[in-house]
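User: Fold this, then the next.

Assistant: Folding the first:
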Amino acid sequence: VLVGSDKSSHRCYNDTVMAASIISYLEENGLSRDDQQSFYQLWGNFTLKATDMVHELYKAHDKASSETAGHRKLHIWGGGGEDSTGGSYNMFSLSNVQDYLPPSTFTVQVWDTSEGSIVPSLVKQGYEVILSHTDYVYLDCGNSGYVNAGGYWCQPYHEWYHLYNYVYDVYQLYVKGAGDDDNTAKVLLSSEEFYRGVLGSETLIWTEMVDDVSVSQKLWPRSAALAEALWTNPHSNEQYRRRLQEQQGRQAAAWGRSDAVEATTDNTLWYEAADRMLHWRHRLAERGVAAEALQPTWCRQRESGYCSRPTGTPK
């Protein structure tokens, strides 16, 4: 069950017409409309009551059924940072967040950016998290502006190569300290903490500019790239490295392509999956799924990897 808990609007809570009952509650309890903490307290109390309601429903279900699922965690949405204008609130900016969202009860799906994320802090506090950083798995990124010109708020478009490398990149960032700025990058988590705290990942898409006609092209086949990487963990799998080296060797011998044997690195392991992705997209299309094309049909009809090069930086 997703309980929410992200970017609640102060303006909505403070609207004399839309939120008259909330304002009356604040006044009756001596809480100021001008103090953010009043609204945080209100939000926290709502979260506690909602949590109790869900747990009661779980208990009723278990009592009525012959099976008991045991302890169930609730799901919460969260990211880092605060709105400097005071327009919206972030529960995870509170020092006492665990009073409302205890790690024993909640998992957190984190939406902020990979660098500067609250993920390391949450894991250190004992939370389990699901990775959904905007700079990797938001599939609606890269659109044009829908209110005014100048581009969508989330840029750039995320290539499937980028999604394939996602968990590896985040591991390098938090465990190895491999940030963009080598002068400030530091180790934020141990490997044991990372694998204990990170449950997995999920692609996300928002629908300001996506509808039932365009959604399949946004979702597929890019979501499959993340799914394969999560399932196989190719960056820690020597079988993938051997297959990549063998594939590159065959291509180098057949086509005289020296670049095919130069890039057996962690950053280009997506290259080993390129042929599978091409054929997977073809199967989706044959089944009537409007999946986005990855390469011209001519490339799929040639030898494995004929149109691909293990070069460039995934975006």
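Now the next one, as you asked:
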Amino acid sequence: LPLTSGYKASCWEVHLHFNNLARLLQCVLVLSILHWAVILADIISSPTCSADTNTCELMSSSSSTPVVLQTAPFGFPWKTFDPFLFCVYHDDKYPEGNEDMGPAASLKGRDIGQDFARKDGWNMYHGEVVPGFPQHPHRGFETVTIVRKGFVDHSDSVGATARFGNGDTQWLTAGKGIVHCEMFPLVHRDKKNPLELFQIWLNLPSKNKMVDPYFSMLWKETLPVLHHKDEAGRETRVEVIAGDIADKRALPPPPDSWASRPEASVAIWTLRLDPGAHFTLPAGPKDVHRTLYFFAGSGVTVGGQSVPLNSLARLQPDVDARIVNGGDQVAELLMLQGRPIGEPVAQRGPFVMNTQQELQQAFMDYQRTRFGGWPFESDAPTHKREETRFARHPDGRIERAEPAPPGSIY
């Protein structure tokens, strides 16, 4: 049908082509349909503007769910979302160790006992001889300590002790109260001692805040790892601390952990993507919080959106999230996921409860009982330099990730 002026052709023009009245009426009907179709198309493709936000969005006849809900730069500590309380990332470039397993370097200019300035790329933290955190209490939550490089010497008020690192994870339920220390022994005298770790605080529901303390060791040799290659052969490596992905299921968390409940859908993964690699995080449950933390690399997109280095990306949890490493370096990310506990959080320092009254009680209990007392001579005990990776549990049971060295007392 030739239209001399688009969809606005007049019926008289159509009549020149058709002598039959019925055909003319048919043409009128067709032109009316075309006319309203064009109007509707204009409406669909027009931007709609909000006076409140002074922004416009293009409407679409088929809406798509965004993958990234929010991005934000890291703070200290990293911001997390229920059921997580926070995450800290330590990346210390320690020098060679001295005879006491402290840094073989001058400590001049450091605020010893409170050293967080990253002078020369490393901190002493609260340590005076060996870097780390001498004895301190916790109640009402869990710590998940993922040590990627270096070592941690652990000791606590229920008689447990350990050395772990270079890929190991310790999962500690503080429960009704524990005092522990975490020291970073610089065991190598002939080379540098880099330390890299995450410590993640995972909340406990109110019914589990007063359970007995407990810890699990997740040795690196036993951690499930997913190796995925894209069509170009570029690899993504996913280490599964909690949760499951594909056919990889994490080792059991402590029995009273929020993560021990299948309906909580807690997942803690570290991801490593080769340059140019891409990987799709599979969709999870709708009612969980899922967050990616991009901490190493040069260029990553998630769901088509660029995520800057040293930034978090909150994800829509129930859609697939395609991650592309568009940079020329290996990209590394941490993923935290979990269904919110949804209870009030009252926190003061190392205690996390539900009410201010419970917090006050926690301080009173600690002052009265010291959560079992401190059975070690030093506030910051460490193991012998030669000691290998092991754990001694409160019941005396000993786990070894490596053979004991000669003369070991464990």
